[in-house]
Each structure stands twice: as structure tokens, then as C-alpha cells.
């Protein structure tokens, strides 16, 4: 019996030890799980940037030891995370180990900062269900007296230059005009009125600026950024230098080049890669080529010691400056073309037809891109926005009925179809004509009475009736087949928006009247000045069409044998006669003394044929007849008086002839 009791006693000891071990293991495991959960909750609060929640996971004694309160802990994290632009924090690879006192929880934390990702491994000690916090949990190697410095380096925006390296959109030193309110003197309102008058501002606008809550008597209050601001030592005025975007041609190239502006909250939502304070393109080439021009900002996030000396570079991102863009544009031609439009509604396009280089792309009226980029008042903006002449639109890329300049293409197609005999005299007895009674009241009209007309006469005197008859003779199928060899329906490879040229609203005319009208450049034809210049390039390239290019490093593209060399020779000779014959409509250009061929044109904008209140758009197509080195298309909307295309062409044609021969 004693032996039996002994066996049972030993068994009881064994069972007791086993139960005790199980309980110890369970308790230890639970503590380990708890330690892991605490660190996970801590880092989750970090990832959500809920900094005020951090203190519930942190030991109060550890904070005191580091000289922090709970409020200061939250503020420390908030200041650092916001300062370096932390957008996201992710934790992974958590591992918990038992130590003599508490648990060591290691984890990998990745912070997505304004300069990119920072990834490292942290060790957090957990004891009594609290993290024993130290500054090393912000960044390893960080102590309580260390600080974090964010040192951004902005990328330099690429510049836009013309074919001769003249600046079109440049980074320049500008004048920032401002006021020190306390220095305005006793006659404050009088001083403000003088400042407003000198710098093109309003007294009301200046007073509104000065009324902002942050303004003090000693503060510098910016009013305007401009180039070469006048300095007349007015009381309170201070001019400081700053850097900014500047557009040397101003209004002359505004629609094409565009302007920049600072990134907005809406921009950041659309493109998370952008950063607050960056400049981005807002319109024109500045916007279209923004990715090329903008580059990528860089910088460093650095851990500094108590003496503000570099202790460790945490994140480093190399800055990548934007690339310069060289255009085919000629800044001098652009200015001349803009000036000859005289602020009227119109456009001028000049090309080098052998290469397709666009040397002038002008739209009028215009706006000042420097104001748009560097600060424009509501009143100034409203002047532009409410202008019925629409200064923001790019008329060089806007489609119009091309009018009589299009007769050149109809003539070439008729010659190639062998339905038009250029030497044949056709009797046209009156100024009005219709095919037959099926046309009802509709009649084609012309402006000059010529009893017998051949192709040369029809081009010299812009005879609508002749071209209407020739188009009907050619027939829709042949006419459309010829037109489709051009660029109708094609989107041109250019860095600005422009709808494709169209022949008609539908695939068929379904009307002899519409067919006839199209033959002399009316009907439903819609072609922008850029597209017109492209189509007319066939006359400078032996029948081959050369596509336009605006970027100087772009390849020249061609479409061969759009019309025959015979058609080019015949039509070209007649267009030269438009200039040299004293009675021809283009004879005015002969006084320039240059070897140019041309076609004038008008396009009527009417609600009906009886409409007497309609307007006329004036066109001129001209090119270097002898060497084919330049070509222009000029257009005026609602042309009147001196402002017709042919009357305003002299200076531009003379410049092109002198520069590109």
C-alpha cells in the first residue's frame, strides 16, 4: 500500500508540473500576442495620422524620461509627418521576442514621403502592455534633441524657344511690387491712388489686399509681379526681385504658348504626383508639354543633431530639371504677323512648305499671358472673359469656310480629272447663275462681269460661277475622291487641339447646290488656317502634301502625288498672274517687288442668300512662287475697310522673303 501511495504521489507531482507549464505557456503566449497587438495598433494610428491616439499605447514613464508629455508626443509626430509630406505608412514583418523584461517587437515601416519612400526596421519594447517609447521610434538613431529637416529642391522648368533660340516662355527675374502699410504716410488714400495709377491697379483692389487678416504695418504686402516695374519712390512702395515665368512676346503668342499657374487642391486630386507650390501649365503648349517642361522636384529629408548638423540622410531624391523645347516658330515673324492683324478678329499662319515648319501661328485679339501667370485681378480677367471677340480662342486652329482660296484645289482636281480645260473660254453672260429651274430661287453669284472666262480669268477675278460649273461637271464622286487625297478627316500630329477638316456634314452632299457651293469654298467646308496652309503646300511641293510640324526635332511627313505636277504648274502660273496682272484681285501685292503667287478670297457668313446683314471673312493664300520657300494664310473675320487679308499682308511677306530666300 505504501508503494501504491508513492506511485500516485509521483504521478500527482508530474501532473502538477504539466499543468503549471501549460498555464505558463498560455500566459506567455497571450502576453506576446498582446505586445504584438499594441505595436500594431500604434502603427495603425500612425498610418491614419491619428496622432492624438498614440499616447494610449505608450508608457507615461517612458515619455517623462524623454522629456515629453502626451500632447507633445502627438505634436512631434504631426509636425514631422506633415513637414516631410507623409502620405502613407505601412507596416509588415512583425516579429515579437521575449526579453528579460517585457517583449521586443520588431517591424518594418515604410513611409511614403514627399520625396519618395523611406523603409527601415524598428524595435519597440513593450512592458506591462505599454510601449517604452523613445524618439528612435520616429526614426532610428533619433534622440530627443534631434530634429528632422525637409530640404526640397525645385526642378527648373524647361524653357520654350523659337528656331533661333529666342525665348518664348522663359524663367526670368521679375519685379514684385508691394506695399509696407506703415509707410504710406498720412495721405494714405492719396498714396494708394498714385500706386494704383502707376502700376495698372485699382484703389479698391489695393485696399482689399491690405484688409487681409495677416497684414501688419511692417509687413510686405505683394500687389503685382511684372517685368521692369517703374520705381518712382512712391510712399509705401517696395520692389523686390523674384523669379517667375515670363513670356517675351506677350499677346503675340499667348494662345499658342499659354501660361503657367500654381498647383491647386483640384490638381492634386487629379494627379497625386503633383506637389503643392509647383508650377504647371494652364493652357497652350505650357499645358500640352507640361510633362516635358516641368521635370521632377528633388531634395533631402535629413536628421539633424542638437547643433543642427547633419546626422543622417533619411531620404534623398535627385532633382530632374525640365527639358527645353525648341519650336519651328520664328519669333520675329510671329510679332510681325500679330501686329498686322491690328487687334481685329483674325489669324495668320506662315510655314516653310518644304519642311512643314510652322514659323508663325497667330490669333487676334489676344490676352497678356504674363498677367495670367503672375497675378491678374478679377477686373482685368473679366475684361478678357466678357470680350465678345473672344481673345482666349486660337483662331489659327479654328475651322472656317475657306472661301475663294479653296478654288485652287478645285482647279487642280478638275485638271487631273480632265474635266477642266484650263484654256477653254466659257460663256457666262451675267453675275448670277443657276443650273436649271430645279434650284428654285437659289443662284450662284460673282462680283465681276466677264463674258467669257477660262481658268486664269476665274482665278484672277475669283469667279464663283465658273468654279460651280466646273465642280458640277467633275461630279461628286470624282470631286470627293480628289478631296480625300488631302487631309480631310485627319487629326494632325501637332501639340495643340484642332478638329479635323471636313468636306460636308454628311458623307454625301445629296444636293447639287451644296456640291456647287463647295467647289468655290463655301457649302459645309470647315478648314482651319493651319489645315488650309497644309493643303495648299501641294503647290509649293510639286503636288506632294507636306504635313505641318511645330517641334523642331519632329520628323517631316509627306503625302505624295496628291495632285499632279501638271496641275501645280498650270494653277501656280495662274496664281502668279493674280499678282502681276493689273486688273487681277491680287495685283496690290505686285508693289512689293517679290516673286509671290497668291489667291484672295472671301467667305460669306449668311443665314440665307437674301440675308443682307451677314458678314464676310477675308482670306489670302500666298507663297514664294520662284523658290517655294515660304507660304502664308491670313484671315480676318467680318473684314471691313483696311482690315482685309490682302491689305495687311505686306510686312509679313516682305520679312519672309528677306529671311527665307
UniProtKB/TrEMBL annotation:
Annotated compartments: Cell membrane
Predominant cellular place of this UniProt entry's protein: membrane
GO terms, molecular function: penicillin binding; peptidoglycan L,D-transpeptidase activity
NTF2-like N-terminal transpeptidase domain sequence ranges: 34-146
Transmembrane segments: 5-26
A Pfam family: MecA_N
InterPro entries: Beta-lactam/transpept, Beta-lactam/transpept-like, MecA_N, NTF2-like_dom_sf, PBP_dimer, PBP_dimer_sf, PCN-bd_Tpept
GO-annotated biological processes: cell wall organization; response to antibiotic
Domain Penicillin-binding protein dimerisation: 153-310
Keywords for this protein: Membrane, Transmembrane, Transmembrane helix
Penicillin-binding protein transpeptidase domain segment(s): 347-653
Domain of life: Bacteria
GO cellular component terms attached to this protein's record: plasma membrane
Topology within the bilayer: Single-pass membrane protein
Family statement drawn from the similarity comment of this UniProt entry: Belongs to the transpeptidase family.
Name of the protein in question: Penicillin-binding protein transpeptidase
Organism of derivation: Enterococcus sulfureus ATCC 49903
